[in-house]
Predict the 3D structure of the following.
Amino acid sequence: ATELHMHAAFFDRNGDGVVTPSETYGAFRALGFGFGVSTSSAAFINGALGSKCRPQNATLSKLDIYIEYIQNGKHGSDTGSYDAEGRFVPEKFEEIFAKHAKTVPDALTSDEIDQLLQANRQPGDYSGWAAAEGEWKTLYSLGKDKDGLLHKDVVRSVYDGSLFHRLAPNWNSPEKEKLSVIREN
Ligand code: HEM
Ligand SMILES: [Ca+2]
């Protein structure tokens, strides 16, 4: 699997390869977001990706995201740290910090994230601007430290989804699923 597949797979709680709106909502709640942010994120993400990330013969709702096709969800005005197939691109990731981590080495302030977003904007790509802004603002609110700094190792860990697993370890762990099956029987 590519890193982008792993990024999305965190949200697939039941492991069926599809991220439903209620799974997106539940994962946001597990990560600590409130009702409002979780509801609007699920509507926005599944609304934007559901119609793109699906096979031609898909039978499920247009709001369901097929992880196998997650690379179709790539947009413009991003950092390029995922390539077109969703593989991680170390050079592009390094470039983020080389260009924008000016206050503290290997960390981004809130202002530096705004500068990163501005610098990546392709003219007229409004949906890409909105998507990139949503991704980075959400990452900042999840990953910033007590001084408001977003460290490089934290940013690195969002790409393969390991950040999500660290913050919400029980959300989709097979161990927990196994326990619930044992309990049901
Ligand atoms: C707390 C939740 C989430 C956070 C913090 C987050 C954060 C990010 C970040 C920082 C990027 C990289 C953007 C770049 O390199 O410019 C990204 C890319 C992406 N994310 Fe998420 N994400 C979240 C949830 C989701 C969900 C639920 C999905 C779909 C199931 C998803 C699908 C994608 C896709 C398709 C990309 C590639 C966009 C591109 O590079 O053009 N993300 N995300
Ligand atoms: Ca699922």
Q: What stands out?
A: The beta strands are 18-19, 65-66, 107-108, 150-151.
